[in-house]
Amino acid sequence: MVALPMGGARAEVAVRLTDLLPADFADGHFLGRAISPEGPVVISIRNGALFDLTGKVSSVSGAVARRAFDSGRELGPVADGLPDGWALASPIDLQCIKASGVTFALSAIERVIEERARGDAGQSAAIRTQLEATIGAGIRSVVPGSAEAEQLKTALIDQGMWSQYLEVAIGPDAEIFSKSPVLSSVGYDAPIGVRSDSSWNNPEPEVVLVCDPHGDVVGATLGNDVNLRDFEGRSALLLSKAKDNTASCAIGPFIRLFDDGFTIEDVRKADVELTIEGPEGYLLEGRNEMAQISRDPLDLVQQCLSEHHYPDGFVLFCGTLFAPTQDRDVPGAGFTHKIGDRVTIRSERIGTLANTVTTSRDAPAWSMGIAGFMRNLATRGLAERI
Fold first, then answer.
1. Which of 56, 216, 227, 258 is the most exposed place for a label (fewest CB within 10 A)?
2. Rounded Cα–Cα distance for residues 346 and 351 (Å)
3. Are 191 and 363 in contact (CB under 8 A)?
4. Which candidate, 316, 91, 82, 310, places its Cα nearest to that of 183?
5. Cross-strand bridge partners of residue 39
6. CA torsion sign, 296 to 257 to 269 to 345?
7. Dihedral of CA 234/240/242/245: which sign?
8. Residue 283: other Cβ atoms inside 10 A
9. What is the DSSP pairing of strand 192-194 with strand 351-359?
10. β-strands 96-101, 175-180: how paired?
11. d(CA 252, CA 134)
12. How far apart are CA 376 and CA 306, in angstroms?
């Protein structure tokens, strides 16, 4: 069974863990979280079996920092699923949730479209045609931060085509922002939220890197960096309102840990497939090809680290190639979510993350923050193992 993590209403559905994991899961090593009747538990998968690590390490961030992946109590074969009464949750807890944006040429063009349309989806088609013709080839052909990129910037300024989004697309500094508060992300099958007052929004299927306190990448998972295009399009200063809302950050299903059979090279060449199934029969399919990213994932990690410190580690959304432009209702207005959309994100070596769209207003309240998490562990005698 899986259900909404962190308390609140639970909408349980029968699901097999083997349906969420990659086909080669028996050869891989995975780390995750569940909510038991007593509270959060840390779980791992290795050699096709499920383990409870909580008696040894009571947080995923601690397991990552100490590389405490191999101890624990065996629960049984993965095919048997979670114990009765347990629900799968987002596989991260105390890590900071960071994200990088405008890391693909297509996403750069779409951000400039939002800026020029001032958040009005009805103007997007005409602006898209113009921008693709004038800047598309240029930003695809240069290395961010290079001399060639600086020359392109000068030319675009002279043409009146420059944008703050192109600065982070081809300039030396990547866009890095805080996506969501600690412990606020939702996992597989939890509702994902868009603001009730947004009329132009979309999912963003991404690979999410999982890093220890030193910035070393230990594995990868999937994420949905839900985005409000109308809000950010009105002003880039509304980025936080566009990105950080209740249930607007989905991560899961598990962290696939790096080993001899799964490395950063698999991340670099990963394809992330997205399917949106609307309640009215609408279907949209897309693909995020990590091979087209303009900045190497490890460079993004270093830019996230910068002069910062993350004592509990951090996770980093790598950005997306995918920006849905297929019309849904109004010709020329492109795509926006409807309540009830089923969003499925899948990558062959990482797994499957699926969620159903609701409004952030109506999504189950986020009820266990850092204080609640610590109180729960303390009552269970687990606080010192965090």
1. 216
2. 6
3. yes
4. 91
5. 36
6. negative
7. negative
8. 9
9. parallel
10. antiparallel
11. 38
12. 34
Pairing of strands 351-359, 342-347: antiparallel
User: b/e for 166-177, b at 16 or more Cβ within 10 A?
Assistant: bbbbbbeebbbe
Q: Within 10 A of 90 (CB to CB), how many other CB atoms are there?
A: 28
Token readout for 166 is: 């192109």
Strand partners, 289: 271
CA angle 193, 178, 114 (to 5 degrees): 65
* Strand boundaries in the chain, DSSP class E: 29-36, 39-46, 49-52, 73-77, 87-89, 96-101, 175-180, 192-194, 201-202, 205-211, 217-225, 227-228, 249-257, 271-277, 283-289, 314-317, 342-347, 351-359
The structure tokens 């991404």 sit at 206
- Lowest average pLDDT, out of 134-138, 182-186, 285-289, goes to 134-138
Reading the block at residue 126, the tokens are: 């005409």
Q: Which residue has the tokens 């999982």?
A: 210
pTM of the model: 0.89
Q: pLDDT tens digits for 49-77?
A: 999 999 999 999 999 999 999 889 999 99
